[in-house]
Backbone:
């Protein structure tokens, strides 16, 4: 079983559309995991049934029992995050500010504070419209995206992939370079970085690869909208060559990218040219990581 | 006045709008500082569009505990109180994992032997550029660091300490709806949600709208790449009574200038929409930016 993670550094480069196409190409050979839990969109293309819903708890939140509180201010002094508020002489926790560190709980002399597990989101293990399996999640509003939910989705996917004896796990990763990306990339066999030839795209690609390098995982690159700026495309290609990164495919700007999305379809179902290019990218990946 | 430019989905045009809006405002206001802060600290890009003279470059730190072996009795208290598993107690050693530490001070303050003290751990860089009336502050998270929030908080802090309250602050937020976004909008007066008229754009806009409602922020929507996809975003905004502040057209020229790292103020269609957006923000917030006469 090989785990292939698609990331981008910069958002909006076509990560999800491309991952969904890889899922379509591989059918039941692959299990898909949408780890972009902060803005999960894969379900719009694969139309899963949101089955096996489970609450996901991560971290804690403090709660002050007003009956026991003696207004001593110790919790407020201890808190580094301004999470203790005094409203009409009542001490209470601002949940958006609370980091769940528990310092207040330890210093409270009247046992008025309890730490409660925080509901951080929901996970699902679904059947898609193609009959394949999708592990996905929805992060709660303003929840702490510490990467734990990403890890949970990946673990669900791994377990199910083992049960189904899948050849591949396809992971739609998150933009950026922080904890959710680290969680997406950890344990992968191959990383696909989707970029676009804008200065922003190039900058974010290089930063994302700095992170990938720390994991010593082989990486390939897809240049989307490669005709947007030929100069930057050239620079990205020579940068990739210097770093031993294979260019998996170059995709010219294509209106059908958006049109297929609007119709809730993957780009390979919609456009023959895109179909060929995405197949070529996938073949290149398989060449690099091998089969089962 | 503090305005945060945010979006659920990445790549919708947050940075494009922030950089162009801030530059245009800095050309138009009189006697007001315009401060643009890039809070997308994981992938800061505003600096590609804003060139200016570097006036400050400083390292940013978060406090983490440092173990003082001579004082430690291995009582295990620090490990017990750490809710983030950032401390490991070995038979002859105490290990601290800086990237897991949330700087809550519980271990340091509750250690009965004073065997831990806080020291600085670098999390990123802050750079300050100045271009005539525009001040641009970039926060950048160091690669390998896991938490964006402390870097965002320190970047905001820098703008607050260096500029009077009557300045015009534009914050370029990270994508999503989780804690880094909350940190970026917490202290602002108005949030501009940038979206695109596609199913992904609409879906993620709905998440952002829910977020803003939950934390009680005033907000409006800017539709970027207007003309592609369907009318669902417009319909959603109308039904939810959300003001559409402006519509930036889908033009090849915009994409090309953006890719080169150029601002878009020379494109009349863009400048006109930016003026609309400014006027609409003024009326939504009942404020007046004292713009110079445009004739």
Residues:
């Amino acid at each position: 079983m090989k785990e292939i993670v698609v990331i981008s550094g910069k958002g909006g480069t076509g990560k999800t559309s491309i991952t969904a196409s890889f899922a379509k190409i591989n059918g039941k050979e692959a299990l898909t995991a949408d780890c972009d839990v902060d803005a999960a969109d894969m379900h719009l293309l694969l139309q899963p049934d949101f089955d096996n819903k489970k609450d996901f708890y991560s971290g804690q939140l403090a709660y002050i029992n007003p009956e026991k509180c003696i207004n001593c201010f110790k919790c407020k002094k201890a808190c580094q995050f301004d999470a203790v508020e005094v409203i009409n002489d009542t001490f209470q926790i601002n949940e958006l500010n609370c980091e769940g560190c528990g310092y207040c709980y330890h210093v409270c002399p009247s046992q008025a504070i309890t730490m409660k597990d925080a509901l951080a989101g929901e996970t699902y293990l679904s059947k898609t419209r193609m009959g394949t399996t999708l592990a996905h999640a929805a992060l709660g509003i303003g929840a702490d995206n510490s990467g734990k939910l990403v890890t949970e989705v990946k673990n669900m996917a791994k377990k199910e992939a083992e049960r189904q004896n899948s050849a591949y796990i396809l992971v739609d990763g998150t933009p950026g370079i922080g904890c959710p990306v680290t969680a997406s990339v950890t344990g992968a066999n191959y990383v696909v970085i989707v970029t676009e030839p804008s200065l922003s795209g190039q900058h974010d690609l290089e930063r994302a690869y700095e992170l990938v390098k720390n994991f010593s995982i082989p990486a390939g690159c897809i240049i989307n909208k490669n005709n947007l700026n030929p100069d930057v495309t050239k620079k990205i290609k020579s940068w990739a060559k210097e770093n031993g990164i294979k260019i998996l495919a170059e995709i010219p700007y294509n209106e059908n990218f958006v049109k297929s999305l609007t119709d809730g379809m993957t780009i390979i179902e919609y456009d023959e040219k895109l179909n060929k290019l995405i197949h070529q990218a996938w073949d290149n990946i398989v060449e690099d990581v091998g089969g089962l | 006045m503090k305005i945060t430019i945010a979006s659920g989905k990445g790549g919708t045009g947050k940075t494009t709008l922030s950089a162009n809006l801030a530059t245009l405002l800095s050309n138009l206001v009189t006697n007001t500082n315009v401060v643009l802060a890039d809070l997308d600290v994981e992938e800061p890009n505003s600096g590609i569009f804003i060139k200016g003279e570097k006036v400050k470059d400083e390292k940013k730190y978060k406090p983490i505990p440092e173990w003082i072996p001579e004082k430690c009795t291995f009582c295990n208290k620090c490990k017990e109180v750490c809710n983030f598993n950032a401390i490991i107690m070995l038979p002859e050693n105490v290990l601290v994992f800086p990237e897991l530490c949330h700087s809550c001070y519980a271990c340091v303050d509750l250690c009965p032997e004073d065997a831990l003290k806080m020291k600085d751990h670098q999390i990123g860089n802050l750079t300050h550029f100045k271009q005539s009336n525009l001040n641009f502050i970039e926060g950048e998270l160091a690669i390998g660091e896991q938490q964006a929030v402390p870097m965002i908080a320190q970047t905001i802090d820098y703008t607050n300490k260096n500029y009077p309250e009557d300045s015009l602050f534009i914050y370029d937020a990270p994508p999503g709806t989780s804690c880094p976004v909350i940190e970026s909008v917490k202290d602002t007066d108005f949030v501009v949600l940038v979206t695109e008229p596609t199913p992904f754009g609409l879906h993620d806009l709905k998440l952002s709208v829910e977020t803003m409602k939950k934390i009680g922020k005033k907000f409006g929507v800017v539709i970027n790449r207007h003309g592609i996809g369907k009318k669902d975003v417009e319909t959603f905004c109308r039904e939810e009574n959300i003001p559409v502040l402006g519509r930036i057209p889908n033009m090849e020229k915009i994409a090309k200038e953006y890719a080169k790292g150029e601002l878009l103020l020379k494109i009349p269609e863009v400048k006109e929409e930016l003026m609309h957006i400014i006027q609409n923000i003024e009326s939504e917030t009942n404020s007046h930016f004292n713009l110079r006469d445009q004739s």
Notes: Chain B is about 35% helix and 30% strand. Chain B touches chain A through 56 residues (CB under 8 Å). Residues 69-114 of chain B form a domain with the Alpha-Beta Plaits fold (CATH 3.30.70.20). The mean pLDDT of chain B is 95.
